[in-house]
From TrEMBL:
Domain of life where this protein originates: Eukaryota
Domain Rhodanese: from-to ranges: 23-125
Pfam families in the record: Rhodanese
PANTHER family given in the database record: THIOSULFATE SULFURTRANSFERASE 18
Signal sequence bounds: none
SMART domains: RHOD (SM00450)
InterPro entries: Rhodanese-like_dom (IPR001763), Rhodanese-like_dom_sf (IPR036873), STR17/STR18/HARC1-like (IPR044684)
Single GO MF descriptor: catalytic activity
Classification via PROSITE patterns: RHODANESE_3
Protein name as annotated: Rhodanese domain-containing protein
Taxon lineage: Eukaryota, Viridiplantae, Streptophyta, Embryophyta, Tracheophyta
Amino acid sequence: MGSIESSGAEVVTVDVHTAKGLTHAGHVYLDVRTVEEFEKGHPDVDKVINIPYMFNTPQGRVKNADFLNRVSSACNKEDHLLVGCQSGMRSVSATGDLLGDGYKNVRNVGGGYLEWVKNQLPVEASVANA
């Protein structure tokens, strides 16, 4: 078992190839992009969950006030989570929030979905791309 840090929550970032390997080892890929972004394409892995960290509104992006509640209803605090977004910005914030909320095994996916695609890793789309 790894050591548990009791002090500040430090976000650990892994690259997309490491993330893909970890999904084969049972890690859950938590995609924090909007539903629309997720449906256009997401990593094709065994366990993927889409819980938006932010919503698009006419005023711009707004943080999802229910994010931590939604994650806690889908995952346990001991689950191994890989947090990914479009380019790696939202996922850093989401990972920090999860660590601050007591999740112990959370990692940020560096570069997000754009990096995943750039590295030609498998993707799945829920809707046809127009």
